[in-house]
């Protein structure tokens, strides 16, 4: 079984850059790429009442699949790719998935590379770095 790189993606351009970087690594080392998208969990009374819990979950799955399909279609090279989605708090779910699949690394983009109040990374990247069971590479 090949080693696994977990690539956390969303709809941003930075995610496509993270995919590009992971493809370079995977091609050189025969890694498997697992694309992961996390949909935020929304469990408000209003949303459940107006839309219905099953419809809300179906919508989230459809949105996740669109993002994952875009990510898979972005890959032109011959590399092994899997796509997964999870529901919950983004950083926690990325770290949990990395543990479960025993990823050797996480690659992700960041939307916030501007220095704001002494911080260089966005809160999701920072939380993943702090909670990750493996090395994290942030692509800008």
UniProtKB/TrEMBL annotation:
Belongs to the universal stress protein A family. It comes from the Bacteria. This is Universal stress protein. InterPro entries: Rossmann-like_a/b/a_fold, Universal_stress_UspA, UspA. Pfam families: Usp (PF00582). Residues 1-139 form the UspA domain. SUPFAM superfamilies: Adenine nucleotide alpha hydrolases-like (SSF52402).
């Amino acid at each position: 079984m090949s080693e696994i790189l977990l690539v956390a993606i969303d709809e941003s351009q930075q995610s496509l850059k993270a995919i590009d970087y992971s493809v370079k690594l995977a091609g050189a080392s025969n890694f498997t790429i697992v694309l992961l998208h996390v949909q935020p969990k929304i469990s408000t009374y209003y949303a459940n009442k107006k839309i219905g819990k099953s419809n809300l979950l179906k919508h989230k799955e459809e949105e996740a699949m669109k993002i994952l399909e875009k990510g898979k279609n972005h890959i032109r090279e011959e590399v092994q790719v899997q796509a997964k989605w999870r529901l919950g708090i983004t950083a926690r779910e990325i770290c949990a998935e990395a543990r479960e699949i025993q990823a050797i690394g996480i690659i992700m983009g960041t939307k916030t590379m501007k220095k704001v109040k002494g911080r260089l990374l966005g809160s999701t990247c920072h939380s993943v770095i702090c909670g990750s069971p493996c090395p994290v590479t942030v692509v800008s």
